[in-house]
Structures are given as C-alpha cells and as structure tokens.
Amino acid sequence: MNDIKKTDEPTPALLEVKDLAVEFDTYGGVVKAVRGVDFKVEQGKTLAIVGESGCGKSVTVQSIMGLIPMPPGRITSGTALLRGREALARDTIDGKKIRGAEIGMIFQDPMTSLNPTMTIGDQIAEPLQVHKGHSYRRAFDEAIRLLELSKIPEAGKRAKQYPFEFSGGMLQRAMIAMAISCKPSILIADEPTTALDVTIQAQILDLMQDMQQETGMAIVLITHDLGVVARMADEVAVMYAGKIVEHGAVRDIFYRSAHPYTLGLKEAMPTNDPNKQRELKPIEGSPPDLFSAPAGCGYCARCPFAMQICDTRYPDGFFVEKQHSSCCWLHHKDSTRRPEELYFKGNDL
Amino acid sequence: MTDLVEAINLTRYFDLSRNQRVHAVEKVSLSVGEKEIVGLVGESGSGKTTFGKTLVGLHAKSSGIAKFRGETLPQKYRPADFQRLAPKMQMIFQDPYSSLNPRMTIGEIIGEGLKLHTSVSADSLRERVAEWLEQVGLKADHMSRYPHEFSGGQRQRIGIARALILEPEFVVCDEPISALDVSVQAQVINLLGELKERMGLTLLFIAHDLSMVRYVSDRMAVMYLGSLMEVGKADQVYFSPKHPYTEVLIGSNPEADPELEQKRPSTTIQGEIPSPVNVPPGCRFSNRCPKAMDQCHEVTPELINLTDVDRQVACHLYN
After folding, report:
1. pTM (2 d.p.)
2. How far is the C-alpha of A192 from the C-alpha of A223, rounded, in Å?
3. Interface touch B186/A206, C-beta < 8 Å
4. Residues B154-186: tens digit of each pLDDT
5. ipTM of the modeled complex
6. At a CB cut-off of 8 Å and minimum separation 6, what does B44 contact?
7. Pairwise CB contact (< 8 Å): A254 & B185
8. Which of A210, A254, A257, A261 is the most buried (most CB within 10 A)?
9. A191: closest CA of chain B, how far (Å)
C-alpha cells in the first residue's frame, strides 16, 4: 500500500497523505478513528475536510502534526509526505521541526488552547525563538508586528496582556498570528470559527484568505459548516466514519454530489434560495460505532439507497469525473440503481 | 391574531460592584401571537437568553411588563406563581449537558413537572413519561437510565419532553440546536415542528443560526446589545433587511452555495459587540454602524412601524 515512488507526477503536491490509519486503545477496546485516508494539498489552495463530530477529521490532521498522544494512540499505516519528506516517521525526523515551522495550526476553542499564564506576545514569540533562533527582544517585536497583521488594534499594548483579557474573536486572531509566525507552508485550521458569532466568523475567514493571498500558504480547513466550506474551499473531502467518502472540487461537491452522505448533509440544512424551498430531511440514526469498524460502507445503515453489497464490502473510490471520486457502490459499473438525486457519469475506475 | 405573550418595555439589569450595571435587556417590547413562532436572533451577548428567561419568570424584571393572555405577570415570581404559571410557560435550554441533573434518572427528570403540578398516580405518571419518551423518538425503557448515557441529540430530546409533558401553551426554546451536529439538528427541528402542529404550541425560538431561524419562524426579531433592532416577517427580514445591523448580520451568514459565496463582498463591519456595562447614550450599534449619522451617537432611536412594509425598525434612517 505504501507506494511513495510517484515520480512521474508533474507537480508534486505540498502535502500528500496516503492510506493513513490511526487507532486508539481505550478501556472499551480499540477505536479505529481513521481507517485509511488519502488526500493531497496543493500550494496556495484550500482543502476543506467536512463531516459530523466523531468522523475522524481532527484525528487525521492531529496525526500529521504529531499531536496524537502515543500511547494510547497508534498510527497503524500510512505516509504523509511534506514536500516529499516523510512527516509521520518520528524516529527519523523530529516532529517539532515540522510542527509550528512548516505547518501552523489553529484550534476550535481559542480560550482553552492558549496558555493562560503567558502573555499573548510571549506565546507568539515562542515559536520564533524555538524555530528561528530569534532573541526574546526580536521575537517579541515580531509578535507585535504579527498582531498588527492580524488586525488587532493597539497591538503593542495587547501583546502584554493575558488571554483572559481578550474576547473570543481576538484570541482567534492571536492564534492565527502565532500559527503563521514562522511562515508555514500549510495552515491547518480545526473548526476555527465554530465558537464564534457570524459577524466575527466572517472577519476571521476574511483574515485567513488575506493571509493566504499574501503568503501563498495552503489551508486545510476542518469544519462541519457547509456555508464556511462554500466560502473558503477550492477542494472538499467529505469524511464519514474514519474514511473519505467523497472528494472533489468545491463545485462538484455542492452541485454534483455523488455520495449519499454528502447529499444527506446538504438536505439536512435549510437553504435560503427561494427557488429551492423544501422540508429539512434529517439523516436518521447515528454514525457507526468505531470499536467494531463496519466491514462494508459505514453509512449503509443510514443510507436511503443502500444495497445488499453495501453491508459486507467496502466500495473503493470510483471516479465520477477526473478529479471527483465517490466511495459508493452505486457508482460501480454493474450497479443498476441510479437515484436521480445523485450525480452519475461514465463511472469506471 | 391575538397576542398570547406580550412584553412591554421589558428591562433586566444585573448589578455589579462599584455602581456598575449590566444592561442585559433594555426596554424590549415584543409580542408573540397565538400559535406563532417568533425567532430571536443576535450575536452572543445581545441579551437573547436573558430576555427569554425574564419572560418566563426565571429572572425578576427590573422594570417593564410581561403579559400572558392579557394578564400582567408578577414582577418577581414567588413559589406560588411558579406553581400556577409553570404548566403554561416552559423553557427548553441551550446546553443539553448542563441542563439535566446527572443524579436523576430520565424518568424522574421528565416526570418531575407532572408530579409537582398534577395529582397523577405513580402508575399513570410512568405511563405518561413512557408515552413522551416515544413521542420524542426515544424508548420507554430508557426511563431508568441517567443523562450521561445519552448523546447530545438524545439529551436535547429529553429536554424537549420535560418541557412539553405539561402541555404548556408557550415555550421558550433557547438555542435548542446549536450544540448539535447538522444531521441531528434537522431531526430536532422536525420534531419540534411536528409537536407544534399537534399541540398548537406558541414558540419563542432563540438562535444565532440565521438560516435555521428563517426556516423555522413566522416572524423574526433582531436584538443587539439588549435592544430590539428590527421585527418583521421572517422571510421579509431575511431577504430585505432594513436595519443596518440586520444587513450586516445576514451579510455575514455563509450560505452553502459556492457560486454565491465567492461573489460575496468581504465583511463590511469591523470590531466586536461592546460590553453591556454602562452603555453610552444613542443607538447601541452606532459605533460599528457603517451608516451612522451624528444624531445616532446622541439620541436612542425608538422602535417604529414602517408605513410601506409590515416591519418595525429602531433606526434614525427611517425617521
């Protein structure tokens, strides 16, 4: 599975994750949180990973960042190549060199992810001291500049304050300043605006887009809000029960959904398009228990189009179009069902 | 339509030390007609929850009047008032984790209201609880379990069953879905809609998800820093907002449509909601408002009826 010799590709992706699988030992047994995930991130592009809570979005990116506590966590298979270098092999490459320097990360809850006993300025200066070897003085001045860049008013005064003196939106700006301090090539944003109001959310998303345009970094955005995805993403990977079930350009995912789960997510949300007024259609049931990972498709118990094979065999990716794949048996060339809600095309692998 | 619940200049302060005062809700006048759903939106810290709680008597009123079926409700509820009014007015709380007592079984939690307000026998109490568990999509044998054994969506259903078992006429739903996943949100919303139809409920639906509020409610009220900014038919407010704050709020709401989103201009509003402690005179939105005029910083605009559309707006632009 681990074939990493893809030298014939024209432009190597910035980050290429292949067959990543992560599990955790718990008292209840082994949880297979991520069960074989592949994706690529291109320079200057935004990849959104979408899914409900518990589908493995956060574990996927945390394992790339080396933030999975091991034990109880365990990366059982997979590679993550950052500019062609292995990022997962901790015994050869120190994760600290990648974390913070090459990949910056911002988290969902800014209140609990910053250190309450350090001033904001010191926290932003810390990665600069560690990775760039700046003196404290120089790093602190740089921190103030970064705060200004993140549009925090009175940055000089704010840098000497503690997290409790900041509002949620301000903290998220400070966290962005910290994440981009070492000019990373990838910014991972794990539900960056879930805890914020819509007006503040819009400001933070704008800030992330401005930063991306300035520095050309790639963004991996994890969210469950399809509105945020529509606004930010170039590419979308929809995750369910530890696997990516549909992957494609943002327009493919929204206008030509090819997986029943993507369709389900869309129909569970109200639309504000007056031409498309309709009832909300909830996805009945709940996601499968990952203690005993399902043999077939994890979604089949909730899927309105489920067939016999779905329960027993996992469908590998079928390409609906060149850059658009869906893991669903309906797209197999021998499948006779073609629900009209879903998008189909010549669907051989 | 007759008004079931009416708030007239309802105000709630919280006193801090050193003559500081939080103006959580200030002179809010809002009526909810019979069998109507009114959505209340606004950023966090705008006083939505405090307004809901003051309306059902969980906070005492600092000033102003709340009426239920024309009857003026007491300024501060005594135990006898709760005993009398709780069967008619109920509340569903935001956080399904902290609003259920972890030491009580689900049966005790849901049945408590019936036990306190009616004289049912233990047998029929169990029957009613079992019936309600099934109505909200849970199983009757869940009765002996404890809250920690349930997921967020299931707990929210328990909260709904607890509020509705007394068959109230008016229910305040305080962000009933914001803690839930998208697919579960739709389940809870559809459940509320079904129960509303069947029982003829009147709802005040507090939320910050604008698309959901527009979908659910008949009328929409927009609140900012303790004051009402705009009230009107939900669709009309959403698609043609009059107040600059409503415009900003709706303009920031991302839609699940990439083509629409990528054409959208970037945010027009800077800054954050100020602290509600010792608010300055004038319109509360004036320091962030893109259309602020001189008088906005001095004179507080009243909520006025617009003549050409069915809408109430508190803004000097329409004077």
Report:
1. 0.85
2. 8
3. no
4. 888 899 999 999 989 999 999 888 777 787 888
5. 0.82
6. A197, B208, B273
7. no
8. A261
9. 13
